[in-house]
Amino acid sequence: MRKELSRLIELDREIVLLAHIQALLSWDQETYMPPKAVDERSEQIAFVEGLAHERLVSKEIGELLGALGSTGGADLAPSEAAFLRVLRRAHDRAVKLPAELVADLARATTLGQAAWVEARSRSDFAAFAPYLERIVELERRQAACLSGAASDSAYDALLDLFEPGSTEASIRAVFGDLRRELVALLGKIQSRPQVEDSFLRRPCAAERQATISSWLMGLLAYDTSRGRLDTVAHPFTTTLGVDDVRITTRYLEDCFGSSVFSTIHETGHALYELGIAPGAEFVRTHLHDAASMAVHESQSRMWENMVGRSAAFWRPNYAKLSELAADALAGVGLEAFVRAINKVEPSLIRTEADEVTYGLHIILRFELESELISGRLAVRDLPSAWKAKTGELLGLVPPDDARGCLQDVHWSAGLFGYFPSYALGNLYAAQFWAAMEKETPDLEERIESGDLASLLAWLRRGIHQPGAACLPGELVRRVTGSALDPRHFVRYLNEKYSRVYGF
Amino acid sequence: MRKELSRLIELDREIVLLAHIQALLSWDQETYMPPKAVDERSEQIAFVEGLAHERLVSKEIGELLGALGSTGGADLAPSEAAFLRVLRRAHDRAVKLPAELVADLARATTLGQAAWVEARSRSDFAAFAPYLERIVELERRQAACLSGAASDSAYDALLDLFEPGSTEASIRAVFGDLRRELVALLGKIQSRPQVEDSFLRRPCAAERQATISSWLMGLLAYDTSRGRLDTVAHPFTTTLGVDDVRITTRYLEDCFGSSVFSTIHETGHALYELGIAPGAEFVRTHLHDAASMAVHESQSRMWENMVGRSAAFWRPNYAKLSELAADALAGVGLEAFVRAINKVEPSLIRTEADEVTYGLHIILRFELESELISGRLAVRDLPSAWKAKTGELLGLVPPDDARGCLQDVHWSAGLFGYFPSYALGNLYAAQFWAAMEKETPDLEERIESGDLASLLAWLRRGIHQPGAACLPGELVRRVTGSALDPRHFVRYLNEKYSRVYGF
To answer: What is the mean pLDDT of chain B?
Structure first.
């Protein structure tokens, strides 16, 4: 079986190499590409995607997977078994989707995104509704292809695309507890005087913010011989090679916190990607990948929120920050700064939400998208359902659909099942952190003394290194000793905000 | 035959698309790629190159070319016939080279370039000689494969790679006249007092130079919605798509002229690429390409030297340049500036040579590389042959091989047959210019009044638009009414330098 396995690795490396090339094509499109090149670039990306797909569904890969599967795998090392599981999952999924459906989805989401941009700018849901109806219909067909007739919930099949092993029921159970606790905490916070944060809107030049971003990347030990920072409209992290993981940010001159926290967030993603180490045999294969989107978010959000918004992190670093930010932080002390960057206030827009209300935004989307996919909610009723749920969860009612159900790109892009990853990421992060604190009781003191290396070493060993070798559920059990439990996140929030708001 | 032709165009578009992707991979490597990504990037480039090669030599393309060739082509439009000629040439060439030889050459030149970098830094020709011997041997085998047993001169087959239709004999005839004239002109110049140019070495900050470069790109009507400028170690132009042609430069703080003229030079290349318009049917095929390397150089050198180093160009633009260059040009008038940027002085390094001595550097390389390929000169005798010829042509003797036969990268990269393109480019440029002046007698006045649009329009119509539809020999005849004639260049140089040096 050694020969078959080696051949499979060789074939898989070509697929991953094509994915890295596709990442460069997309990165360049967002950063430096001249505007008129956009049509050609879409063709180039589609072409490379097609080459990768062709290879992934190839008869040879299917036969090799079949041959290796039928031996029972008794003589396989754990990493070999994991590689076969991950590649089989990708192959099966690609094979299950008819080429026609893939093409229909690509077309519908391309048109859908253009229609969404237009509809959002005019807050005109009716104009977007037919596109969304078509996308929901195709997503349901996709789910049916992926799950066969076996599954009770079409939505399960979509969730599994982003968070392998999760189901609507398992997420609903977790989100039920979470919702109750977040609403209770929000009530406590709202009974206290609001914190002052107006200085965060003082002007700070883009060049100053760029200097701050470079400095932060250095503090977090992001190896810029294996990555870099560029500016874009919507920040992201992308992997162009195992030694080439790039992040992006943007500089808003009247909101320098935006680049500070997006740089830390994206650096968190990059540290994960750069830390994956599946062993020499599996470098640059499908095993050389993240465990899931939610585990990815756990890393970015841990660095952004649990580290980057903590007093412990800023204690040794705040003097330098206020020097670099100059006038923007003049006369603002460390305590006032830490309070300001942790201000909690229900708002309509998910991407601007604080750590407490963010989860409520996600629960809202989870509930509505599962209803859309199951057919319990019709697309035309989405705006009213959205308004009702925003009122229920956040105590606000969006004045229009642009600030309501038209605010996110995801559904127009066909990303049903993706939203839960964001909230699950927070839960994983808090549970990982609790385990880390148990093993390293002086973790906070270390961070306070400027030592982030122990934290990174722990993450590398436990979470980064295995990459896709563990399913997310296995990973959390292996690292923390128990299944996913939202109480860690609830405890973290309660401790943090009782200090910030003094209750 | 329509169906076969359409299919061939479709297949060829994939090959060109892959070439554009490869160009992005290489552009990124030179501009932004993190250093540790270099090994993976080489693999990515080799992989894409392999995909393109596979397609180019494919049985289907061979059969389609065969089917279309055997009909006699009586019913083909001229652009269709040209497309078949260009694609057949590329296909035949790729088919003639055994995969083993291609791989051997790739390996030998990769090793050769690394050895060359090292040898040049220590001026140690003996360390490089074995690598060069291997490359020369493989180049001779390549030439034999390309030409079959038919050709008298292996070097002809290599010249034809870069300048289709040229031969050693045809170039030797042209260079013979050129050499005599250049030596005579140099003698006249050296009998006159030297011009003053020390102010060109005054410091000028990189940001100022960047502003100057952007301004120049605008003056030359380089459409930055279809291109851009970045900084690199060795400036180049590259085509990532028909609407994505990018240039590069570098900013030497004590030599701002370097970025001024390299920006104009590379913009000349970009204007050519952006102006190729083979008709909708052939967009993004092999017909959508330059006529040859020498025609490409004719465009970059025409803009750099015939426009960018002329008094006519600077008359309306010098005030702005001295404002942007600030201290660097303080107290320097237009006439002194134009004299300084046209200073002639024999020197050892080709890339720093002026317009008069540049041709002598090329003739030296042409003569030596033809002897190396024919076997009349042994690699071990190259340093002494180089020294002798430099003395003969330039009146100088290199004190070491780093400033002698180790100065250029080309031979270590296997680019035998490429050097003549540089000098031919100058000859084409002068001959095109003479034709343009005949049709537009007030060309100089137009340029003096700041009108570069008529010049560009003429180039687009006559030279850019046809792209690869004309062989270079045909192009020069069609545009100028006669075969390549070095006297145009000689006349241009004599007129220019009699003004600069007052004889």
So the answer is: 95
Query: To the nearest whole percent, how much of chain A has pLDDT over 70?
Result: 98
Which residue, B25, B20, B15, B6, is CA-closest to B94? B15
Q: Tell me the shortest Cα–Cα distance from A443 to chain B, in angstroms.
A: 32
Q: Which residue type occupies B219?
A: L
What's the pLDDT tens digit per position in A317-374? Answer: 999 999 999 999 999 999 999 999 999 999 999 999 999 999 999 999 999 999 999 9
A291 and A382 within one domain: yes
CA distance A482 to chain B (A): 38
End-to-end, the C-alpha distance of chain A in Å comes to 63
- Within B148-197, residue ranges assigned H as helices are 154-162, 168-190
Domain boundary among B65, B81, B96: B96
Contact flag B44-A241 (C-beta cutoff 8 Å): yes
* pLDDT at residue number A248: 97
Residues A348 and A205 in one domain: yes
Residues A168 and A286 in one domain: yes
Say if CB B390 and CB B336 are below 8 A apart: no
**What is the domain extent for residue B39?**
2-96
DSSP A428-465: HHHHHHHHHHHH-TTHHHHHHTT--HHHHHHHIIIIIT
Q: Is residue B498 part of a domain?
A: no
Q: Which two tokens stand for residue B300?
A: 């970059």
pLDDT at A184: 96
Instruction: Say which CATH number the domain at A285 has.
Output: 1.10.1370.30
Interface predicted TM-score (ipTM): 0.94
pLDDT, tens digit, for every residue of B421-458? Answer: 999 999 999 999 999 999 999 999 999 999 999 999 99
* B28 part of a folded domain: yes
Cα nearest neighbour of A24 on chain B: B25
Q: Is B45 on the interface with A (CB under 8 A)?
A: no
Question: Nearest-CA residue of chain B relative to A44?
Answer: B17
Q: Which of residues 147-206 of A touch B (CB under 8 A)?
A: none
pLDDT one-digit tens code per residue, B26-78: 999 999 999 999 989 989 999 999 999 999 999 999 999 999 986 656 788 99
Query: pLDDT, tens digit, for every residue of B142-157?
Result: 999 998 755 568 999 9
The verdict on A96 and A183 lying in the same domain is no
Can you give the pLDDT at residue B73? 62
The residue that leads in pLDDT, A416 or B147, is: A416
Cβ distance of B25 and A25 shorter than 8 Å: no
Residue of A nearest to B14 (CA): A47
- Tell me which chain B residues have a C-beta less than 8 angstroms from the C-beta of A224: 34
- The answer as to whether B215 is a domain residue is yes
Under the banding of pLDDT at 50, 70 and 90, the label for residue A151 is low
- pTM higher than 0.80 for the full model? yes
Q: Taking a C-beta distance cutoff of 8 angstroms, is the pair B128, B412 a contact?
A: yes
**Is residue B108 domain-resident?**
no
Contact A37 B230 (CB under 8 A): no
Residue B257's pLDDT band (cuts 50, 70, 90): very high
Shared domain check, A290 and A216: yes
**Nearest CA-CA distance, residue B31 and chain A, Å:** 11
Beta bridge partners of A231: A249
Last residue of a domain, one of B96, B117, B139: B96
Using the Cβ of A50 and the Cβ atoms of chain B, whether some distance falls under 8 Å is answered with no
Q: Does B226 contact A at CB distance below 8 Å?
A: yes
Tally of domains within chain A: 2
Same domain, A178 and A142: no
| Amino acid identity for residue A463 in this structure | I
Q: A114 and A28: one domain?
A: yes
**Three-state DSSP state, B327:** helix
Are B219 and B88 in a shared domain? no
Rama region for A196: left / alpha / beta (φ>0; ψ in -120 to 50; rest): beta
